[in-house]
Specification:
Elements: E1 3-11, E2 18-27, E3 30-36, H1 42-49, E4 57-62, E5 66-69, H2 78-84, H3 89-97, H4 102-106, H5 113-126, E6 131-135, H6 143-153, E7 159-163, H7 167-173, E8 177-182, E9 188-193, H8 197-242, H9 253-265, H10 267-292, E10 313-315, E11 318-322, E12 325-329, E13 332-334, E14 339-344, H11 350-363, E15 370-373, H12 379-390, H13 394-406, H14 423-435, E16 441-445, H15 453-464, E17 471-475, H16 479-485, E18 488-495, E19 498-502
Parallel strand pairs: 3-7, 3-8, 5-6, 6-7, 12-19, 14-17, 14-18, 15-16, 16-17
Antiparallel strand pairs: 1-2, 1-4, 8-9, 10-13, 11-12, 18-19
Helix pairs in contact: 2-5, 5-6, 8-10, 13-14
Length: 503
Amino acid sequence: MFLHLDNITFSYPESGCLLFSDLSLSFQQGWTVIAGANGSGKSTLVSIAAGLIAPDSGRVRKSGEAVLCSQVFEGLEPQDWSDIFCGDNHVGMLKSTLSISDSMIERQETLSGGEKKRLQLLAALSHSPEILILDEPTNHLDSYSRQLMINALRTFDGIGIIVSHDRAFSAALSSRTVLFDRASDGLTTFEDIPLSLPDALDESARRKKAGRDAYESIRSAISAQQMIVQKLGERSRSKQKDLSKRGISSKDHDAKARIDGARLSGKDASLDGAMRNHMSSSAQLEGKLEAAGKPLMRKEGLTLSGSMRVPDLSFPETLITAGSYSLNVPAFSVKAGSHIALTGRNGSGKTLFMKTFHDYLEETGKGDFVLYIPQEFTGEEEERLLSLFRSLEDDERGLVLSDMYRMGSNPSSLFSHELSPSPGEMKKLALAMSRREGRSVLMMDEPTNHLDIVSMKILEKMFSQDGKDLTILLISHDDAFIAACCDTVWKVERNGNSGHLIV
């Protein structure tokens, strides 16, 4: 059982830039997590591994069928129906493990996002592939669906690859992580670390710090050697001046004799020898520095301080309805500077509540203080935000781009009319644009969906440092993100057609 990617080179025709150059990776039985920056080619690489995209050069060697579960599930194929209803006991156990009934399969178009992802996984596992690849499998999943998928994936005994930024999900399945990044020339580089994703991130940070420290240590040693050479040179020049007979009277035989004696002693020669030794040491160190290469020292993180000061936010007791569903919300007050996570099962009404709360703040005159970032931007919302960005003066646009770069972005797509920015880039653009407006209330629905692990870590640090300046309300299923960013957790519980917000 094997999967080898040998010397893969690939570039997208529309970009004209190499993404991979002679990249080689091997996968064995068990789970491997691929994580890293947006745009580093994670989805492209697994599409090449599955045979859906052909590389420009290099080859893929594998021992059996590879099945790729893409980020978007477009419904069951005819072969899926045959495999799911084959009557095999293993498939029956998978249905039970994933909590999928035959009636759910029959009405797949009406399933929730989490239910569709579980059905997609059932179809993939029913094929009994040797190689299973999952691209961002937990986007939009609540903790219940996530755990069901973990239970099912633990039964898979082939070669498994997960492209994911979900630390808890990844750590539950895998102890090998491949971290992707893009070098300054645009090529993808990677670190292959035999640790779970959370530990691999720490190890990668440790290695990068060690590399920067070693680089700076060599630079300091070079500076010290150059300073010694400079001082020895000054002493040598002074000594040569002292040993010169220029200006000495031709009749002063004693002075000439002392200079001749000093020259014969060879002290000035030893001084020149020391200079040559230190110059040689400096040259060797410079060679080491060039061989090591300058490590990327990217400035990351921002201060999202809100200049618009708002009082505590309140909301009256309300019954929110949507179709046959009703959500009971008690009266509450949010103290300025609070960081609140809103949790609960998918379909319980979290987004419904957040939108209603946002509309209420708009109606009561506090809307100008609020930045609301939805789970997904509509085409109209994207175009409005991009048009606003492109209309900025050069200096203002440069500041926004600098902010996005410090949030882990390389936002070249913002200037392209052919390439659309990713959903993650749009979220970071909204944050960077609003930072110029000094908004003090931040409402984000599933902020970590579509963000890479680099950006998530940066956002965690940004949010955790802004406790006094921003009021934050997040909808999230990411326990690690919640723990890093929030001091309070609210929960929405649903029972049939009725739900309750617990604050």
